Amino acid sequence: MHFTPERMTPLKALRLGIDTHHELIIYLRADCPVCRSEGFSAMSRVLVSSEEHHAIATLNIVTGDLLKKGQIGFSEPAWQRLYLQNDNPIWLSHPKPVQSMSYVRAKVYGHTLDEIAFQSIINDIVDGRYADVHVAAFVTACGDKNLSNDEITSLTHAMIKAGSTIDWNLPLVVDKHCVGGLPGNRTTPIIVPILAACGLTMPKTSSRAITSPAGTADTMETLTNVCLSQDMMRNVVNQQGACLAWGGSMRLSPADDLLIQVERALDIDSEGQLIASVLSKKIAAGATHVLIDIPVGTTAKIRTSEAAEQLAESFKSVAKNLGLSLQVLLSDGSQPVGKGIGPALEAYDILAVLQNRPDTPQDLKKRACTLAGAMLEMIGYVKPGKGLAKALHVLENGEAWRKFQAICHAQGGFHTPPIAPYRYNIVCHTSGTVLSINNRKLAQTAKLAGAPADPEAGVELFVKIGQKVSINQILLTIHAANIGELNYAVEFLEEHKDMILIDHGEETCH
Amino acid sequence: MHFTPERMTPLKALRLGIDTHHELIIYLRADCPVCRSEGFSAMSRVLVSSEEHHAIATLNIVTGDLLKKGQIGFSEPAWQRLYLQNDNPIWLSHPKPVQSMSYVRAKVYGHTLDEIAFQSIINDIVDGRYADVHVAAFVTACGDKNLSNDEITSLTHAMIKAGSTIDWNLPLVVDKHCVGGLPGNRTTPIIVPILAACGLTMPKTSSRAITSPAGTADTMETLTNVCLSQDMMRNVVNQQGACLAWGGSMRLSPADDLLIQVERALDIDSEGQLIASVLSKKIAAGATHVLIDIPVGTTAKIRTSEAAEQLAESFKSVAKNLGLSLQVLLSDGSQPVGKGIGPALEAYDILAVLQNRPDTPQDLKKRACTLAGAMLEMIGYVKPGKGLAKALHVLENGEAWRKFQAICHAQGGFHTPPIAPYRYNIVCHTSGTVLSINNRKLAQTAKLAGAPADPEAGVELFVKIGQKVSINQILLTIHAANIGELNYAVEFLEEHKDMILIDHGEETCH
């Protein structure tokens, strides 16, 4: 009565060379007997098995002559996930219903989830059992402040357990994180060499941009190799005390990488997912002491100091549940930091600070040293109140720059960031004083210009709030890798001239 | 400085013959200059323009030789949406950011949305600006009871405005709806001919199954053509006073069809979306008087009479806002209705009732006549308390059956439902009394057997709660169109033997 899938005639695998990013897609002929025998139709979720591996994929039905009879086509991610070669035998069957979606539904209906529930969801996501719509439902259900601190703790635990962890066998491993939303606020590549030059261990893994024009990993990638295996990372840290690596290649909290892809498409903030994302990565990477920077400003990610205080409390409460030492610093989030917005442009700011050049963006330097100093105070390396001075000292005497170069060298070599071939200057049509700068719209402009996919793309901003500007002065320059994106960014900017507000009420005074 | 997309060299359209259901997918070579000039990458959302049409599609990048230089491939839905022919010139550009997603985010963050917000979201969904993940976020954000009655009213209005509406120029146009969750509860095809035989106007449009093994449209499709254009529907109703059509082909509330595709994948209930879905379809179809059937049972969609009363109140409140006469009946939802679960099996039950055959499922007959009678009382056609008798009379004297045949004939002819080639009997291993029947698990079994995609698939249930059963008596038969699905349903059933609970504590009495 019962036939197992193995008894069916297998299909022959064919690599179609279709890049579907992270979605696993398979292609079957409409007249394929297995469609009929299993009742599959377009967009069915199908369990695909080779002799050694299996995965769940989404089915596309081919009505043309793309495939011969008996063939099954694979998109690139599906091909790679199953480690296939052409003509490998493939069997198809129905995947079991995804039981953990009942927990997602429970969350939508306002119930509280326990650690078993979060572990089931996270494991299913990591195993590829969720299509993007399911991940979107989970992300949305956990959106805003829909998770309690206990739930966030459970989610964090689940995300750690679903991936690899690193144990450094050291009593003190430091890390820092900025909740973002402030364009150009790229302090990490400055803080890491300062702290490493002080002898601390800081195995820093960073993410790529989620909804911003650049993540620390995007910026560092314009300066050195950031795709380190865990073994390579261990070597770099053993040599230099620190690294500046992309976290995504290390399977530290791999669920986070999958969640972030959908969060990016939705652009939905979730306090719980934010905290779980940050802390799961830190704990998996072996951190014992973590400093969190929360910029506060009306157009930053966190808009009020009340919201920042609440987020800080949640961070502290969850960290305590997880046995992690954690401190939070609130910082000024009223305007971008430094000049550059976009991977390479931010890298040039970082180089100016580390090299103590005369054009150093002073705001970026001060923020980085304040945070590095706070960490030195937090672990008792210096007395309270002495951190900033120590950090400035290590930066200004060139130790930090030497350490930065040594880290880049250990990671595969230092290289010069790219420069964009297409540029467009926006000039001031009046004289006056800069009243406000809209972080969100500037970030949007940089993204439309191509950042972070084009590392050389972005915005170079030449003014700060309170600065006096004169007619025809350049306010900002848009950088792009191609004409299409340059146009798109310019159009957006021209539709949003309120991005930089100039008060020219007192023109007569100038 | 600015180049419009029209100045670029167009690509040549190629039909790849890939069925991606409702998702619009385009395929570009990795070395295509427009990818570079516009900064597109795999899974980018792209505005695709032919000389006459445009649509937003998701990009897949082709690294093999599927496409020649200068070609752009289209999936079937994308090809059809743009009304293309091979080699038509195609231009690509960035779609504008989907502004209405900010309303979806606002809903996730707990804000109340107004009609403008809902209209923006619904229009963007109907215009294809949302990828499935965006729709999933909207569905999830509106899940459970997250919409107020005013919000549901706004959403309903928005859904009506985004599609066609029908005006019958009649003071009285009746309709009914069952909120579902009760397998086999297929009363509509019995109620419609009873009320039409009484001279009422009932232009019934029904949906296909969302999460159940059969929708009324799926069942009716096994008996006649249900894909009517609005003109055809008008002809049928003018001739016969009623129709039994699929609503999806009429663009009555087209947003609903798109929302339902994602809701089906997520299986997330939303009170607001349920009410808006039902009422938008009814009002767009021109109904003035609507009866809502809410079955209540521990394994039905609505589990308690409190939840049913709350849902009824929301239905009434929103209907009042919309100027619609509406009544709600709560009914017994403790077990399936009739014998059949699945499109064709339910059709056979309906025929037994309409033809007054000796094997008529009495429960289905009584429910249908109770609802038809309630409508006759609601509109004052009979005095209070006289509705059921009138409905039974029209059914038992054959008028309803003649009317049903006439409607089917007007829709394109009556045909006999298919019969499944593969069956499997589940027998009772003990004697005793049926204690409970799990609607959800039975529905799941019918779906695993292939319903509703295979219309002949499903479950035939031979017992009712309280019925005495003896050893080796057949409890149910699984019907399937192929061996794969039959196996899958049998396996599920064997893992969930508690689907039908038998009390054999008093075996000695039998």
Give a short synopsis of this structure.
Two copies of one chain form a homodimer. The first copy, chain A, has 510 residues and is α/β, with parallel strands linked by helices.
Mean model confidence by pLDDT of chain A: 92
CATH superfamily of the largest domain in chain A: Nucleoside phosphorylase/phosphoribosyltransferase catalytic domain
Strand order across the biggest sheet of chain A? 1-5-2-4-3-6
**Which structural class best describes the helix and strand composition of chain A?**
alpha/beta
Oligomeric status of the shown chains? Answer: homodimer
The number of domains of chain A is 3
β-sheet strand percentage of chain A:
15-25%
The most extensive interface, with participating residues per chain, is:
A-B, 74 and 74 residues
CATH topology of the largest domain in chain A: Pyrimidine Nucleoside Phosphorylase, Chain A, domain 2
Distance between the termini of chain A: 92 Å
Radius of gyration of chain A: 25 Å
What is the level-2 CATH architecture name of the largest domain in chain A? Answer: 3-Layer(aba) Sandwich
Name of the CATH first level of the largest domain in chain A: Alpha Beta
Shape summary of chain A: globular
What's the total number of strands of chain A?
18
> Helix segment count of chain A?
18
Q: How many strands, which pairing sense, and closed or not: the largest β-sheet of chain A?
A: 6 strands, mixed, barrel
Ranges of chain A where pLDDT stays below 50 over 5 or more residues in a row are: 1-7
What is the helix content of chain A?
Answer: 25-40%
GO biological process, one term (chains A, B): pyrimidine nucleoside metabolic process
Domain Pyrimidine nucleoside phosphorylase C-terminal (chains A, B): 433-500
Pfam families (chains A, B): Glycos_trans_3N (PF02885), Glycos_transf_3 (PF00591), PYNP_C (PF07831)
GO molecular function (chains A, B): 1,4-alpha-oligoglucan phosphorylase activity; thymidine phosphorylase activity
